[in-house]
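Exercise (ungraded).
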Amino acid sequence: MPNVGQGTKARAERDKVTVALGGNPNSGKTTIFNALTGARQHVGNYPGVTVEKRTGVCRHGDLSVQVVDLPGTYSLTAYSTEERIARSFLIDEKPDVVIDVVDASNLERNLYLAVQLIELGVPLVLALNMSDVARRRGIEFDLELLETLLGVPIVPTVGHTGVGVDDLLDAALAVANGERSVEPRQVQYGEEIECRLGELVAAIEHTAIGLNGVPRRWAALKLLEGDELVRAGVANADVLSTADVAAQRLEATLGDNPEALIAERRYGFISGACQEAVRSTVESRHSMSDQIDAIATNRVLGLPIFLGLMYAVFHLTFTLGGPPMEWIEAAFAWLGTTVSGWWSAGSESLLRSLLVDGVIGGVGGVLVFLPNILLLFLAIAILEDSGYMARAAFLMDRLMHKIGLHGKSFIPMLIGFGCSVPAIMATRTLESRRDRLTTMLVVPLMSCGARLPIYALIIPAFFPSAWHAPMLWLIYFIGIGLAVVCAKLLRATLFRGEAPPFVMELPPYRWPTFKSVLLHMWNRGGAYLKKAGTIILGISIVLWALQQWPTLPAAQVQEFAAQRAAITVGSDIPDETRLAAIEHAEAEAALEASLMGRIGRGLEPVLRPCGFDWKISTAMIGAFAAKEVFVSQLGIVYSLGQEQDEESTPLREKLQANYTPLQGFCIMLFCLISAPCMATIAITKRESNSWGWALFQLGGLTVLAFAATTIVYQAGRLLSVGVS
Amino acid sequence: MKQPAYLANGIPLSLLAPGRRALVIRIDAGCGLVSRLTAMGLVPGTLVAVVSASGGPMIVSVLGSRLMLGRGMAAKVFVRELGYSAG
């Protein structure tokens, strides 16, 4: 029997073995991968994980074993990207052995993939995973019989605790080394189909097409099924026409298309095997999961429970995140002072300025949010790992459907309230490219954490305390509302088309493990840190440079020096406040003279319809790159120095003195709608694989921000709202 | 008495109430969709039980696992409800 694995002779001499891990989503495949490799990966309970190929290494005696975690798939057709990737890997890379991780409590469905792996001719071992759950449900297996019926070694495992994993590896390596011979049983498809298969196999042999090692029977089956990849690969007119004729004959005789017939026979084979070797002793009809679901997905209670949970999550993130944020802020302040202290006081060093103002100021501004972000991701991880997220997708699906999206799109949006970067990465779970792009483009409208300081600065500056909470809610809801409108628009124009079919597995509820939740949280948080360390860092340096040059003309420098001298000369103890005031005034003048200031001035006429003067425009330049820096930029523009934050009274007073509530609101509106940061655009480019969409996102959000703010400002002026 | 044609051809799954069980007869959809549903266990000849059906997507039980099916999808799966008798 032709075999996709390496030759036996070659195996014994090698000291390196490749093991591929396949299996259904939710079968615990990733947990087994972690158990084998000890690597850091996350266990996703909710729709699949990314389509990336994860690899790890584990040692077994002298052997170095490379383990590849294939994407979770239910089948090996050519219909989805994940399946194609899994299939291509198996055919092209020819791993030494394949472990199919099978959910023991869900055996029949899981074996559908196993049967296809057998037909593909890969050296196979089955891991009967979650066997503890199966036992608890009263399912018993006659393993020896099952092994005989399928013709494949089967090892019971409990991925979460690691039980059976050693045995699994032993069995897999034994198969890889040829120590254990495998005689997989092929599904018999019945006389008619077997006849046609025979014809096709003969045709393939006759034309001597190169099949890259796959069994001819498999190729024939795929041709009968009409598999487009195999058809393209075979590309021989005679063979293809034989296949077409055979398919037509089958349809005429048996009354259905070959693909459906073949699928039915597969399940028939599986059902037969399971009837012999699997016994259910206890009817698990009212299992715990169902009971919880009766409430969680209840028509009346479901949505309120969900909304309540969401509110609780956000509330927790803000309250628990507060203290750590202050510590980080203090830490960065300390760092700034320390680094500053490396140079003697009063000296003008470009490097010092770069490090303290540019790097520490810029990156610190972003990192301060880390606790907030991590807590949000922790909550999401718990909800995902417990299985609740799938129910949430179910509940949200109806609403999402109204804007042309799926329940699945709601997770990226939820993450977007923390940071758009991991949110856009989370759109990988959406299968349809249209859905994915739509979600990616509107996710930035979910007000992210970086914008909070802007609201925290402006709202108390302009609005009475009774209005504070409602104003914040208003801003958030405007964001959500705009996202809804934009999504609908996109789906009606650029991304027209029927919403792809929604079918998703609801895995049983499970207690999330501490380890998996932390890993899960850290994966997303890592994206946030990475953005801070790379793009934001780069932007901070660029912004810093824009503020440094051109420097203040010599004449003005002398003038300020003279003013300082005037104060110090008069007395022994210089008046610190007045000195500080002169310093700040000098900083403001320097800003005006610099490139940043000039661009700000240049932008003023453009942004005037929005109600912005040159100072706001200048601060907006920085904010354009990353919203985190807006507040500190505003501080600089108002010559209050670098250290202003949203709590600072002087800045608030300056704002009150110079702007109306309407303008304050417009600032918030503009910041809400425009792109959160350049990192978002960069990640959109990466995830959509096209600069076109990234720039469309940037342009679209900017134009939308401008238009909306202008309308609000002009309307407000016309109606004299908030202009006191 | 012969079974009316519509019963022989099955009724859409989307019409079933929670708690009802049925046998899948055929799936009336494009290859990609059929393949997807097949891989998740919805094949002619399989038993399907409706767990929840309250306006939005349905939750059904197939081969021991729970699936969420959009209404549109469920309407394309034709089943024969168990408990009916012919003639």
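Further reading is listed at the end of the chapter. For now, observe: The first helix of chain A runs from residue 8 to 13. The longest strand of chain A covers residues 16-23.
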